[in-house]
Amino acid sequence: MRIGIAGAGVLGRLLAWRLSRAGHAVTVFDPAADPAAPATGSLQRQAAYAAGFTAAGMLSPIAELDNAGPEIARLGWRSLALWREVADALRADGCTDPLFAQHGSLMVAHGSDLGAARRVLARLETAPTLAAELPTPQPLDRAALAALEPALAPGLHAWLLPEEAQIMSRDMLEALAIHAPDVHWCWGERAALVAPGRITLAGEEALSFDLAIDVRGVNMTHPGAACGVIPSRGHQQQPGKAGSAQALDGDMPVRGVRGEVIWLHAPGVALQRPVRLLHPRHRVYIVPRPGDLFVIGATEIESEDRSPVSLRSAVELMAAAHSAIPELAEARIVHMEANLRPALSDNEPHTHLEPGLLRINGLFRHGWLLAPALVEDALAATGLPPAPLRGFPPPVPEEGHSLWPGEARSTAVLDQAPASVNPC
């Protein structure tokens, strides 16, 4: 099949990588200049890059019960094993960067903030089927916490969330592009419209595909934002209000939710696993990265402002992190970054499927957590042959193979397309 993908974020790169391994001809369009992560060491430049680069890459289905429902937890739990398989496959292909780590995570709270922790624990206790599917959070006393993570403040209440994990988000995004050499990557190309079997680039005619996939995230709503334009600076958009958003499937408007992260360099501070501090204003996480780096985030602001991190956010995030890890007092601030998460009115992901068109959007704060499971389910729903994570790709399906439930394959789009298409 000839497949066109609009958007090279987490979903776009993962789909392209998997579909190309299944033997399909895949073309990806994205306004970014190249597949590389944005440069660090600055406040932030206004440029086109995926929101997935900004995320710390925590894979915490249990801890997300603080603000999400059981289905998010189930999808996230499935994704843990899928991400491990993706990382193993990329390593087998020659990728040497650390991509995935699974040592569990910690949920911690100061004494005054125990209510949020109890909400998470209560959700597991009141959902017997969910409790049976997920591991039980393990309470840690002061001695156990000190033995596990000695850098954490001794007065914290703590729970170990077994088997939770993290993705090295920047390295993973780059690896998915680099190790999918058969994909035709069209960088610097903005998709203005995605329709069944068609992707229209800005200022150009529509290109034809057997299947068009729209995973543009917030850029589906504000295509100009992909070029660095601030779509609604200072505008506080409320959940469920359409504003200028486009609908995913007729009644689900996509909006941007601002998130901010801060990178610290703290040589000598040892932290093995991600830590989620239950804070009155933010769900603050502290995530260790190779090279004595720590990523602190993330704010959740109902605004589509792409400008640099605010003073309030920086102070609150760093103060919260310091309260959990006192040794961070001498850490150096090396990078601050803000981006927009794509969200729908219910803050849950949605997939829209019709012949010739697949849309996935609304991953909100769960992009890395949910992406592999959503991709697996979407590919199964289209009727496409499986895209294995290991081994050689299977042959492209023969004519007549059913690509859509109850529908035979149509070659009309292929017949209309020129023999050689170079959309870039």
Strand content: 15-25%
How are strands sequenced across the largest beta sheet? 6-7-5-15-16-17-14-18
CATH class: Alpha Beta
N- to C-terminal distance: 19 Å
Shape estimate: globular
Radius of gyration: 21 Å
Please give the largest β-sheet. 8 strands, mixed
Find the CATH superfamily. Answer: D-Amino Acid Oxidase, subunit A, domain 2
Taken together, the total number of domains comes to 1
Helix and strand content put the structural class at alpha+beta
How confident is the prediction overall: mean pLDDT?
83
How would you sum up this structure, described in words?
With about 425 residues, the chain is α+β, with helices and mostly antiparallel strands. The chain has a single domain, classed as 2-Layer Sandwich (D-Amino Acid Oxidase, Chain A, domain 2). Helix content is about 25%, strand content about 25%. A hairpin with a 4-residue loop joins β11 and β12. α1 crosses α8 and α2 packs across α8. The protein starts with a strand and ends in an 8-residue tail after the last helix.
Task: Please describe the topology of this protein.
Layout: E1 2-6, H1 10-21, E2 25-30, E3 58-59, H2 70-92, E4 100-101, E5 105-109, H3 114-125, H4 128-133, E6 138-140, H5 142-148, E7 157-161, E8 165-167, H6 169-178, E9 184-187, E10 191-195, E11 198-201, E12 206-208, E13 211-214, E14 255-265, E15 275-278, E16 283-289, E17 293-297, H7 311-324, E18 332-343, E19 350-354, E20 357-361, H8 367-382, H9 412-416
Helix pairs in contact: 1-8, 2-8
Short summary of the structure?
This protein is 25% helix and 24% strand. It is built from nine helices and 20 strands.
